[in-house]
Amino acid sequence: MAQTAPPPLNIVFLCSDDHTAADLGCSGNVNIHTPNLDRLAARGARFPNCFVASPQCSPNRSAIFTGCTPHTTGTSRLHTPMPPWEKTFLDALKERGYHTGAYRKVHQGDEFNRRFDFYRADKKAAFAEFFDQRLADQPFFLHVGFTDPHRPYVPKAFDPPHDRSKVRVPKFLPDTPEIREDLGMYADFIARMDAECGQLLSLLESRGLAKNTVVFFSGDNGMPFPGAKGTCYDPGLNVPLLVYWPGLARGFTRHLARPRWRARSSQNAGAEFPGLVRRIELSEAGRRFQ
Length: 290
Ligand SMILES: [Ca+2]
Fold this sequence. Notes:
Layout lengths: L9 E7 L18 H9 L1 E2 L10 H10 L3 H4 L15 H7 L3 E6 L5 H4 L4 E3 L7 H6 L6 E6 L31 H30 L6 E7 L14 H4 L3 E4 L11 E2 L21 E2 L1 E3 L2 E3 L1
Parallel strand pairs: 1-5, 1-6, 3-4, 3-5
Antiparallel strand pairs: 2-7, 6-7, 8-9, 10-11
Bound molecules: calcium ion.
């Protein structure tokens, strides 16, 4: 008897803004409060060697969407919009019947925002709205572009604020009270974003979607400090990457290179999507997901 094909996996892509890989609790920076992302990593995998195509926002984001280097698509200058003729993984998803949505910062221009079936720029727009609008049986892709921990920083972004005496001061920065205050606010903004990630992940759970949804969390470039964002030193290029893939146990083999993502699992057999990441190979107990 023929087996019924499992439904396609839904995909959620969470993107932080100006965030170096080391600055998550699950990356070893235990003084940053990121319980929701730490939990995601514990249930999935953390890829410590995720390096972006550019240490700036819009060029790297264009690489995520197209699978091409920014120079290839003419988007290497900051704030350059995505050329209207460039195909992205959104096209591949739509061809497969996906409902596509985005919240907040996409940074590829207004025309590009209209390529999504659903787009909300307003930071106060509820995440539930996207799920309310989709057809119940339609697979979805949802992009959430947080603007944390991008500057400008303001005090009291997170309660309780991080203890400035305990923040991690990278070796390339001087350890002064002013730098510690600045790093403390960076950590506060990361914690605020983590709380919003928790809201979205709870929504997936409460609507029964988590069991069929792949969740990516990554960043667009490194921390906004001298020697990091805007430079090709590691703190400017090495961003977080966490992946939760339902059905795969924690601790599966990690192998990653950007910028082309090929999803070949039992639920996405043969599907190839340009962009997002170059290649993910996940293997578990002799099974191979590529
Ligand atoms: Ca950025």
